[in-house]
Automatic annotation (TrEMBL):
It comes from the Bacteria. This is Transposase. It comes from Streptomyces capitiformicae. Transmembrane segments: none annotated. One of its GO terms (molecular function) is transposase activity. Residues 1-25 are annotated as: Disordered.
């Protein structure tokens, strides 16, 4: 899932099996760029997405702030970057996304689909995210 700076979920994908995270990041950012007409200002994701190739690809797409944590032991320069205030703020913001995912599971039925096969699961997930976005419009327009 990808959300914009206002908290709306602007992109989601549901796939068969358990594909690796890293190759999915750049296409997701490209879809968000196509939908919104501009690249996102910040991209933050967990360690599964953190690769040097993703960092380079996101920089080529014009992103200014990239907060991808890396797996394994980082080098000295990477340690310095990950200790910077801006990186820590991005990391903390990502932790908040986990609460949004939990909220989607508890409130909007994304814990378990009631429809069969991948097509049914994609429909179920899309409807849950649509309902979430509708509720979010009501919350922020008060």
């Amino acid at each position: 899932m990808a959300e914009d700076e206002h908290g709306f979920i602007v992109d989601h994908q549901l796939q068969r099996g358990n594909p690796p995270d890293a190759p999915q990041l750049v296409p997701s950012v490209e879809r968000v760029t196509t939908l919104t007409g501009r690249p996102p200002g910040t991209v933050v994701a967990d360690r599964g997405f953190g690769t040097a190739a993703n960092d380079r690809a996101l920089e080529e797409l014009g992103l200014q702030r990239i907060g991808l944590q890396r797996a394994g032991k980082p080098g000295k320069a990477r340690c310095e970057y990950e200790r910077s205030r801006s990186f820590r703020r991005m990391r903390n913001w990502r932790v908040g996304i986990e609460a949004r995912i939990s909220h989607l599971k508890r409130t909007f039925g994304l814990r378990r689909t009631r429809l069969r096969r991948l097509d049914g699961a994609q429909t179920w997930t899309g409807l849950g995210i649509f309902a979430y976005n509708l509720q979010w419009v009501a919350v922020i327009s008060r």
